[in-house]
Amino acid sequence: MRRSFGFFLPCLVSSTRIERSPAVLVMADVCNTARLHASLNSTRFAPYKVYYRSFCGHCPPHPEVVCIPCCQGTKGEGRGESAMLMRLKMAYRSLPLHKHTHIVKIDDDTRVNWGRLKQTIEQPVFDDPLAVGGKVKTNAPNKYINGGAGVIAHTKLVSDMLKVWPVVAQDDVAFGKRALEMGAVFVHVPSMQQECDLDLRDVTTLHHCSAACAHSASLMSAVFAALHLVV
Fold first, then answer.
1. At the topology level of CATH, where does 20-226 sit?
2. What residue ranges do the domains of the chain occupy?
3. pTM, two decimal places
4. 167 in Cβ contact with 87 (< 8 Å)
5. Which residues lie across from 158 on neighbouring strands?
6. What is the pLDDT along the chain (231 residues), one digit of tens a residue?
7. Cα(83)–Cα(74) distance, rounded to whole angstroms?
8. CA dist., res. 205 & res. 111, Å (int)
9. Strand ranges, E, within the chain
10. CA separation (Å) from 154 to 66, 128, 130, 187, 221?
11. Is it true that the peptide bond before 141 is cis, omega within 30 degrees of 0?
């Protein structure tokens, strides 16, 4: 009997190995209930685990949103830090990064074509632990990724950046600058759009979408994603 336990032990250990997968981080505003509910509806059928994070302040908490302690607004919080940068840092820190390969950070007014996003992340270029992708922009002399349209970051890069997180300047620019300093490889994804003025079926993400802008394509792409198809 003892020999049989020794024989089967490697099988038992290997069977408990956690399969890592991408995840979605939604930076939300619990005070804007209409926008939050529209976002929750648009992520119902996401093919990945979805985490909602928000600075809740005096607003009532939401059962699907985890409140983080900082920060309200976009200005400094008294010590020169960017509130948006600090909020993003705390949101990333609250995630179980070890369970995931990539984190796709979006805003709660961002709509996602889940089929296209899945296809994008599965490209070999995103296997690089220093890969970070999205709509790459240039604001001389800085190169950065438009955060609202979505940022696909390998969790290895996120973990390393949390150790040397930038504290000042515009959040997208500061994040991009620090990522490049750490050797990040920027991957331009032109179909991750900045404005909600296109058909979601033709792109990967749309940003600045009001609750009314969450048209039927959101639900359609979610259903196709559940079926592992691309619209």
1. Spore Coat Polysaccharide Biosynthesis Protein SpsA; Chain A (3.90.550)
2. 20-226
3. 0.83
4. no
5. none
6. 444 444 444 444 444 556 899 999 999 999 999 999 999 999 998 999 999 999 998 899 899 999 998 876 655 444 445 788 888 999 999 999 999 999 999 999 999 999 999 999 999 999 999 999 999 988 767 788 888 889 999 999 999 999 998 876 677 888 888 899 999 999 999 999 878 888 898 999 999 987 655 544 444 554 444 444 444
7. 5
8. 6
9. 21-27, 49-55, 66-68, 100-107, 111-112, 131-134, 136-139, 142-145, 151-154, 185-188, 205-206
10. 22, 8, 6, 12, 24
11. yes
Residue with tokens 């500061």: 174
CB 160, CB 130: distance < 8 Å: no
140 burial via Cβ count (<10 Å: 0-12, 13-18, 19+): exposed
The two three-digit tokens of residue 56, written as one number: 């809740």
What is the C-alpha separation between 191 and 200, in angstroms, rounded? 10
Q: Are 173 and 138 in contact (CB under 8 A)?
A: no
